[in-house]
Each structure stands twice: as C-alpha cells, then as structure tokens.
Amino acid sequence: MRDDDLxxxxxxxxxxxxxxxxxxxxxxxxxxxATPPPIPFPWKxxxxxxxxxxxxxxxxxxxxxxxxxxxxxxxxLPGTSAFALPSLLDAARFVGVDxxxxxxxxxxxxxxxxxxxxxxKA
Amino acid sequence: xxxxxxxxxxxxxxxxxxxxxxxxxRRWQSPLINLAYRFCWDxxxxxxxxxxxxxxxxxxxxxxxxxxxFSTWLFALATNLYRSEVRRIPASTVSLDDVAEPRDQxxxxxxxxxxxxxxxxxxAVLRLPVKYxxxxxxxxxxxxxxxxxxxxxxxxxxxxxxxxxxxxxxxRGKLPRLLMAPxxxxxx
Lengths: 122, 188
Hints:
The structure holds two protein chains of two kinds. Chain A is mainly α. Helices cover about 70% and strands about 0% of the residues of chain A. Chain A contains five helices and no strands. The mean pLDDT of chain A is about 80. Chain B contains nine helices and no strands. The model of chain B is unreliable at about 95-110 and about 180-188 (pLDDT under 50). The interface of A and B includes residues 7, 11, 14, 26 and 32 of A.
C-alpha cells in the first residue's frame, strides 16, 4: 500500500452536511448573541472589604501565635510598655474580634466560591 | 472560496450583522464537517463538533488578526477543538489489537475486498495514539501538504514529519500485510 492508497482510504468518504445544518448553527449563533455578557465582578467595591479582611486575619494569626509562644523576657525600652500587646489583645477579645474574623472568612469564602462558579459558566 | 468574502463577512459580523455569519458557515461547513469526520468517523458527532467549532469561531471572531488567512485561523481553531473533543471522548473503543487483519493470506495477495481493507486501516488509524492519529489525519486531509497540516497543529514542520514517520511505523507494525510497501511523497 502506498501513500496514495492511504490517502484514498482516509479521504474517500466525503460526507455532505445535513440539510438543516446551517440553520442549526445560525440558531446557536443567534442564541449566543442574545445572551447578555457575564456581569464582571465588582473588584473596586470588593477590594476595600477584602483588604480589611486580610488585615484582620493577619492580626488574629499574630495574636494566636503570641498566645501559643511562651513570653520571652525582653529588656524594656524606655518609653514603652510591656503590657501594650496583651492589653490590646484583651480589648480585641472584648469586642468579639474572633466572631468578626469568622464572619469575614465566611464572606471571603462565599465570594471566592461564587466567583469560581461564574468563571466556570463564562 | 474567496478570502475577500470571508473578510467582508467577518467585518459585517463584527459590526453587529449576525446574519453575515451564515455566509461563513455555508462556505466552510463541508470542509469542517469532513475534517471532523476524519477525527471520529461518526457523521452525527462530526456535525456536533463542527457546530461547536463555528460557535467558537463566532465568539472569537474579534481575535482573528488578519496576519493569516481566515481559513487558516478557522481550521486551526476547529482542529484544536476536534483534538480536545476526541481526547475527551475517544472516537472508538475498539482496541488496536482487535483490528484484525484478514485471516486468509490469499485474500491479501489475491485481492482482499477493498471495503474490508479500508475498514481495517481506518480502525487502525483510530487506535493510534492521539498525537500520531491527528498528524496522519491532517496530513491526508490537506492533500499531503505538510506546512499547512503542521500549522493547524501549531507544530514545527520537523516535529510534524517525525510524528508522521512514527505514525506510519506504528501502522505498518499493526497491519504489516496491508501496508507492505509504503512510499511517501516527501520521501521520494
């Protein structure tokens, strides 16, 4: 068998499009054209909130780490207070920062999830 | 098929006249369906894949840069889609080992029925590893024009030739009696 034979075997069978093919394609194209474009995610509005969420998350992580590590005695610098950080943490606990962080994390998760969903559809 | 007609229709579609896309579909439906058919050997699936190719072409019409012919762009887009579709859902579940050569040797020497031989070769082609199968399909679809076929696959010509050679080697190994004496145009 030569190259021409292989060519004949693979190309001999010419098929014709079915009669309604063009209409079917054009229907799909018109449907596509009629579909409104996906709404872009409002990054400008969401960014400040996300930024705050990240800040809070970092602060909570830092405070968590501070709780876990044993206090290391450090020489006190003049003009600073050794009790500044613990009192700050107490204050944060008092206003319920833990819950706020939890809610923000949930919000962030839902935003990311919805973005992924819309991204997959687009 | 006129390139200027394509250009004019594309310009109209981009300007908002969707019906101009029909001209593109009418001009290219047959070649695209036949190309799809060679990827799957299934008429209904070939039409489905071609419809999807046209739809993608419509969506991406604005990305055609005019540095290549519209047909080149369209074929590259369609080929890419057909390749991924056939990778996603393989065209055949028949194992290459099941591609039986005729049991009766005399049939080959004396004249095996053309239909059986063609079927055996096609099945063997379908069972080739994807990269070799698509190389072979495009080579013959484009009338053994290596530069055009390589462009559709976005491959350097050297790589394309190497794959083509390997594809034939595999075919020859699977169908030794049918492919006794391959003689390739570009080798001669």
